[in-house]
Amino acid sequence: MDPITNPYTPGAGTPPPELAGRDDLRETVRIATERARAGRAAKSVLLVGLRGVGKTVLLDRMREDAEAAGMQTLRIEAPEGRSLPAMLAPQLRQALLRLSRNEQAREFGHRALRALAGFARGLKIKYQDIEVGLDFEPEPGLADNGDLEHDLQALLEAVGLAAQKAGTALILFVDELQYVEEEQLAALITALHRAAQRQLPVMMVGAGLPQLPGRMGRAKSYAERLFDFPDVGPLPADPARIAIQKPAAEQGVDFEPGALRRIVLETQGYPYFLQEWGKHVWDVATASPIVESDVEQASREAIAALDESFFRVRFDRLTPAEKRYLRAMAELGPGPHRSGDIAQVLGKKVTALGPTRNQLIAKGMVWSPSHGDTAFTVPMFDEFMKRNMPGDDWRKS
Ligand SMILES: Nc1ncnc2c1ncn2[C@@H]1O[C@H](COP(=O)(O)OP(=O)(O)OP(=O)(O)O)[C@@H](O)[C@H]1O
Ligand SMILES: [Mg+2]
């Protein structure tokens, strides 16, 4: 097929041509945001799933849904190494400036901007990366204690009041939430809790890796009651087929059932892999309908492309010791694996490997589904590790 009209979109955060299988989750979030706007109890929602399952694109779509329904939104991505207040402040400012355009909300919007000024000034010493334009002077005593937990609470309350006056809700969309430091996560949870108690229209829709619920629970023990943690997993067979079939059909290109079955099998329904397979199958095929042998040929190219992008970017961030640890895990299969078994493959003590395992968790490469277990956060990473570090050399040192 013509590569110029290739509809598939493998890539981090790249919207797919067809967002398959996520309607129920979108509806859950739509209901929650409407409840929040109406001042009814609504749980914040955290999308939890492995790498490449489509958390970011779903979050972005939910944000579009919310904006289309007249909600105020902001979006941040928690990167490794920047503070939450620093990410939040400029986005909150913009949301507040928009809210303040509303006649009914102006006074409260301006008050919230004063709270933001106090917040930024008070926390600047602790979080030096905070940089935000100040539209008003702080109001003494308003969100300016210099204590994140207290000040974020006061700030979100002021913001919530402004949103309420404007007849809308403020929805915070936060990606990669697992990278937020525990103490900052705790402050965010408390602030959202407080806003919910006061029935203010503020809520969060977040996304993160499977370690997120555990992290939230450690940050604040009541977090698990305060949030819904829907699983974002690989697509079941039907939506996986639709993800491939529909974009092609829109251009008059069909698939034989065997070809579709093969794609679903090879990708296991993982959205990133579906896009990668779709792209290569399209380029390989010379006529419609696309047949199974097209898929067979495209599979090799799709895997090679993943090795050079999706897997490679993660691999390149690892130290030699971390690579060896993951290679040992791969030796045992897809996982999860017991720490003792991994240590045995490496001929080391579990305690000696503890720091490496912790670094891998902090980097978001592995997580612990239950005590003493370790699993990859990247689907099919075990096979990549074996392709990429073949032989037995890695066992040495
Ligand atoms: N529901 C879906 N149907 C079809 N394709 C999808 C779907 N969701 C995501 N994709 C595709 O999967 C790829 C990965 O999506 P995305 O970057 O949102 O995943 P992610 O879960 O945020 O990954 P990471 O944890 O690495 O950030 C993109 O190419 C996207 O177009
Ligand atoms: Mg993402």
Write up this protein.
The chain is 53% helix and 9% strand. With 397 residues, it is of the alpha/beta class. A 5-stranded parallel sheet has the order 2-3-4-1-5, with helices on both faces. Helix 4 packs antiparallel against helix 5, helix 5 runs parallel beside helix 6 and helix 10 runs parallel beside helix 12. The mean pLDDT is 96. The site of magnesium ion has 4 residues, from helix 2.
Radius of gyration: 23 Å
Report the major sheet. 5 strands, parallel
Cα-to-Cα separation, first versus last residue: 49 Å
Tertiary shape: globular
| Total number of strands | 8
Give the neighbour order of strands across the main sheet.
Answer: 2-3-4-1-5
* Helix count from the secondary structure assignment: 17
Bound molecule kinds, no repeats? adenosine-5'-triphosphate, magnesium ion
Percent strand equals: 5-15%
Order of helices and strands: HEHEHHHEHEHHEHHHHHHEHHEEH
